[in-house]
Design brief:
4-stranded antiparallel beta sheet, 3 helices, ABM domain-containing protein, 38% strand, 104 residues, alpha+beta, single chain, ABM_dom, Dimeric_a/b-barrel
Length: 104
């Protein structure tokens, strides 16, 4: 398993709404086209209306690289910065979990 935890901070309320729309459109394509993407979850942060967190879990590093190569992901990456004031990315090394069918 390979994962990411990403925190995005939007510039303002209008940027947050536009970012959420971009995320929704991209997420539909991820769900439809990426069997190696095990979890792609996006959350609003309670009490911090401009923040979004993504939890991404991929079958393996190759599935992540496949995800990153998709035209719609590249479009998301090129468009997102106009809405954001900050991005923090943590790469995750999977140890264990519930609800995830994994062989180590």
């Amino acid at each position: 398993m390979f994962g990411l935890f990403v925190r995005f901070t939007c510039k303002d309320d209008a940027a947050a709404a536009a970012f959420d729309d971009l995320v929704a459109r991209t997420g539909e394509l991820i769900r439809a086209n990426e069997p190696g993407t095990v979890v792609y979850a996006v959350h609003r942060v309670d009490g911090r209306p401009l923040e979004r967190v993504f939890y991404e879990l991929y079958r393996d590093k190759e599935a992540f690289e496949e995800h990153e190569s998709k035209a719609y992901v590249r479009a998301f990456l090129s468009q997102r910065d106009q809405y954001l004031s900050a991005v923090e990315v943590d790469r995750l090394d999977f140890v264990s979990g519930k609800g995830v069918d994994v062989e180590h």
